[in-house]
């Protein structure tokens, strides 16, 4: 196909759906188009920046080249000549990003994916009618992608994918009669694994004493056959499946074919014979880790329908329970495999877990991070499923129940199960109950917060056929997140926050960082102070008090319900008392907490409450529509996302034009700005844009503005300086909030200072936020975050080599330029 036509075809396929993109495109300003991607109002239309990035390039290219492109490159010109000519025309604009030399497939208009031959990036066209399915597929990609692209996939990338996936899916970890087996349909793979010392030493020699590694020493059986998994609560989907089955195929297969362009039935099946060797329970974790290192990750699959050893659990979703499409999709990715499902806060992970339990229908152990969550899980099981009181039991410090009958559900905390010291007689008995049986299913809530050592104890003491981890943020500030991959399984599904907001499943949120200048007195003390009191000084900055007061008034007048978060308890009490609002922290008794929360929910007189870290999780307040953060836990991306989660459940989220609001108040030119940028990184990666507000118009005119006079400000600074250094601590309240995970949270987990690039910010205008002209703002440039993300990602060999080649070429060019 002639290159000119290719470029134009690309252009016609790439019609811009977003109003911002269109406007910027008309101005012919490429940089602006890219910046616009961070605007939240467009995010539903452009879920991934790269999509527009490519489209914008194509458009620009077509415009630039149009006059004489046919003469430049005629039919039959060599690719190289063409590329050279292209380079001379447009390369100064696109540098090394010009891919117009790639040939498009004849049916490219109906295919949504591009693959960059330079770095292997897959680019998805979000405007394609099958973009959603393609995205779904990309999230869980584990097969060679050579057949899926719009353009032929470069050889180097094909061989890279082949190399990486050669061993994937060949080895399984299977639990049979309370014993663990490493299984494969490829005996030679088992032999390879047994050459490794760690794996060889973990092997249990049952029937065969011969230590030599021969295929004949493995136990062999027939591979089980799996039919389609039917997820309860999805009547519509089941109907579709039935129709598809009648027509001779499944919906999954149809989807696969539409995105990939290859008939799913063509995919090779392994041979029927399964070979296996047993491994020592205590060494499971080491074997899994070793297999990962050897690039033979062990999949854990449970053929629950053919498990006749473990008693069935007679539970189902209530007929009134209807699961949402993304909940169904996430479960269809699970099938019977172990792994992790990532859904935004408030998107309904609990129901996903419950539906999985109702699908597997075997004994189930649910582990949560606190006893409050234990009670919530139990209550949700009762609400959504027909489980009876006798079938569900709770194991916490206060309650040690067993279920009646052969099968049932136990809900507990990680620490109750992982704790090995000073156990009471009852706890020991309960642990015997848990460890002596085989569990069909173990549900792991909030998997991202659980320390690796605790997980290890759980997975080695509890025998479960399949595991499902649930989380909203697969991030943590220590480097332990990768451990989850081998301890639980791979990420099975991840939903896009922006998509769920666009469909009304979670609220739309406007995010802003409000810069509060320090008063000269506070700043002088801040610079002088070397102790932890520095933190108190930037939290207690009078201008921050004023901004908080202004925003509360502004949003109360709009009819919002506001939660003000402060991790620092000293500041929390000082603010709440000064502004005359109710507050809850770790020291607030249960009765008092309930009373305050009820007032907030039901009384029109209580529209604002102050919460410490205890409110980050497990407090479900669908009334809240505005969040103001006055002090937070250093650079924790996870905490920032969890806090945002408090307003994503806003009851009013489906009201037309409804927005929830999330403000972070930051004292200017202090360490707090540095933490704030780091905290926002996860949400920015999800597509949220943080506007930076530098001025709150009308603040000075607020009646009763607090700390208005110099004297009041000086009084405030005296009290801060008189306060104990320990008032700057967050520790005690953190423990209270973490509940049963007390003592497991480290400073590193909260993103304490480390190497961090400086932030760039650029100016813009604000009218979308709060619908008002009351504030002027600076928009944060995303590049610092992108840079950080790049720095944190270990480079693959393939790309590392390209980087090296590119650097060498650049060096050469520079040298040539000098001579
Ligand atoms: N399919 C559904 N139909 C109706 N309501 C639902 C459905 N799924 C979830 N919900 C409701 O959405 C709310 C949020 O659910 P849930 O508490 O499970 O969220 P979550 O993802 O666990 O959030 P977090 O990470 O913040 O704990 C709950 O009130 C729940 O009842």
From TrEMBL:
Helicase ATP-binding domain span: 330-492
Compartment(s): Nucleus
GO biological-process terms attached to the record: nucleotide-excision repair; transcription initiation at RNA polymerase II promoter
Cross-referenced Gene3D superfamilies: P-loop containing nucleotide triphosphate hydrolases
Reaction equations catalysed: Couples ATP hydrolysis with the unwinding of duplex DNA by translocating in the 3'-5' direction; ATP + H2O = ADP + phosphate + H(+)
E.C. number: 5.6.2.4
Keywords attached to this entry: ATP-binding, DNA damage, DNA repair, DNA-binding, Helicase, Hydrolase, Isomerase, Nucleotide-binding, Nucleus
Major enzyme class: isomerase
KW Transmembrane helix (keyword) present: no
UniProt-listed CDD domains: DEXHc_XPB, SF2_C_XPB
Ranges of biased composition (kind: Basic and acidic residues): 788-819
Spans annotated as Disordered: 1-34, 781-819
Domain Helicase C-terminal as annotated: residue spans: 546-700
A single MF term (Gene Ontology): DNA binding
Family membership noted in the UniProt record: Belongs to the helicase family. RAD25/XPB subfamily.
Official protein name in the record: DNA 3'-5' helicase
């Amino acid at each position: 196909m002639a290159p000119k036509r290719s470029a134009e075809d690309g252009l016609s396929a790439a019609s811009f759906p977003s109003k911002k993109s269109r406007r910027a495109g008309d101005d012919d300003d490429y940089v602006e188009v890219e910046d616009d991607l961070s605007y939240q109002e467009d995010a539903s239309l452009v879920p991934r920046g790269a999509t527009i990035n490519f489209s914008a390039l194509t458009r620009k290219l077509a415009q630039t080249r149009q006059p004489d492109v046919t003469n430049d490159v005629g039919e039959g010109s060599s690719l190289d000549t063409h590329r050279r000519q292209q380079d001379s025309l447009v390369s100064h604009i696109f540098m090394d990003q010009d891919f117009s030399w790639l040939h498009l497939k004849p049916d490219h208009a109906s295919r949504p994916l591009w693959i960059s031959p330079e770095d292997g990036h897959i680019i998805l066209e979000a405007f394609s009618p099958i973009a959603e399915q393609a995205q779904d597929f990309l999230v869980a990609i584990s097969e060679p992608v050579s057949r899926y692209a719009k353009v032929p996939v470069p050889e180097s990338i094909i061989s890279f994918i082949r190399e990486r996936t050669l061993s994937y899916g060949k080895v399984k970890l299977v639990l049979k009669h309370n014993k663990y087996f490493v299984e494969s349909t490829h005996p030679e793979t088992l032999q390879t694994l047994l050459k490794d010392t760690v794996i060889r030493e973990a092997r249990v020699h049952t029937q065969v004493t011969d230590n030599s590694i021969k295929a004949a020493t493995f136990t062999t059986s027939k591979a089980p056959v799996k039919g389609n998994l039917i997820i309860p609560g999805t009547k519509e989907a089941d109907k579709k499946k039935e129709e598809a089955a009648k027509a001779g195929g499944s919906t999954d297969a149809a989807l696969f074919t539409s995105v990939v362009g290859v008939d799913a039935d063509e995919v090779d099946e392994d041979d029927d014979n399964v070979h296996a060797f047993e491994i020592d329970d205590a060494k499971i974790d080491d074997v899994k880790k070793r297999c990962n290192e050897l690039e033979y990750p062990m999949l854990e699959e449970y053929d629950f329908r053919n498990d006749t050893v473990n008693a069935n659990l007679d539970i189902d979703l209530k007929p009134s329970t209807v699961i949402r499409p993304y909940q169904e999709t996430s479960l269809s990715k699970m099938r019977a495999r172990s792994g992790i499902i990532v859904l935004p806060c408030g998107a309904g992970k609990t129901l996903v877990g419950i539906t999985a339990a109702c699908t597997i229908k075997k004994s189930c152990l649910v582990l949560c991070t606190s006893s409050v969550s234990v009670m919530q899980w139990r209550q949700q099981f009762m609400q959504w499923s027909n489980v009876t009181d006798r079938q569900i039991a709770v194991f916490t410090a206060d309650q040690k129940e067993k279920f009646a009958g052969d099968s049932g559900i136990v809900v507990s905390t990680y620490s109750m199960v992982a704790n090995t010291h000073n156990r009471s007689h009852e706890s020991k008995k309960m642990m015997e109950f848990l460890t002596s049986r085989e569990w069909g299913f173990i549900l792991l809530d909030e998997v991202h917060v659980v320390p690796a050592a605790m997980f290890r104890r759980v997975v080695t003491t509890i025998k479960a056929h399949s595991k499902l981890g649930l989380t909203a943020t697969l991030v943590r500030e220590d480097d332990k997140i990768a451990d989850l991959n081998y301890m639980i399984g791979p990420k099975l599904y991840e939903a896009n926050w922006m998509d769920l907001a666009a469909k009304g499943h979670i609220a739309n949120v406007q995010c802003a960082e409000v810069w509060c200048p320090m008063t000269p007195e506070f700043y002088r003390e801040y610079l002088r102070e070397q102790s932890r009191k520095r933190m108190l000084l930037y939290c207690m900055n009078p201008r921050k008090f004023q901004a908080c007061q202004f925003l509360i008034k502004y949003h109360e007048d709009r009819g919002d319900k506001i939660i003000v978060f402060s991790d620092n308890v000293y500041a929390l009490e000082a603010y709440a008392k000064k502004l005359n609002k109710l507050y809850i922290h770790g020291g607030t008794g249960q009765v008092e907490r309930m009373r305050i929360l009820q007032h907030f929910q039901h009384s029109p007189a209580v529209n604002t409450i102050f919460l410490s870290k205890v409110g980050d999780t497990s407090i479900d307040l669908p009334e809240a529509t505005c969040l103001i953060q006055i002090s937070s836990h250093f650079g924790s991306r996870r905490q920032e996302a969890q806090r945002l989660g408090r307003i994503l459940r806003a009851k009013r989220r489906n009201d037309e034009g409804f927005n929830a609001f999330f403000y972070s108040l930051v004292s200017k030119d202090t360490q707090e700005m540095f933490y704030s940028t780091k905290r926002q990184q996860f949400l920015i990666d999800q597509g949220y844009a943080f506007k930076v507000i530098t001025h709150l118009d009308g603040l000075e005119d607020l009646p009763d503005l607090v700390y208005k006079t110099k004297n009041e400000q000086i009084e405030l600074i005296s009290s801060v300086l008189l306060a104990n250094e320990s008032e700057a601590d967050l520790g005690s309240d953190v423990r209270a909030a973490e509940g049963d995970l007390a003592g497991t949270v480290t400073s590193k987990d909260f993103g304490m200072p480390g190497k961090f690039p400086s932030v760039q910010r650029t100016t813009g205008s604000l009218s979308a936020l709060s619908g008002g002209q009351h504030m002027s703002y600076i928009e944060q440039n995303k590049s610092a975050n992108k840079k950080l993300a790049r720095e944190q990602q270990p480079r693959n060999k393939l790309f590392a080599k390209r980087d090296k080649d590119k650097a060498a070429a650049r060096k050469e060019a520079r040298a040539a330029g000098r001579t």
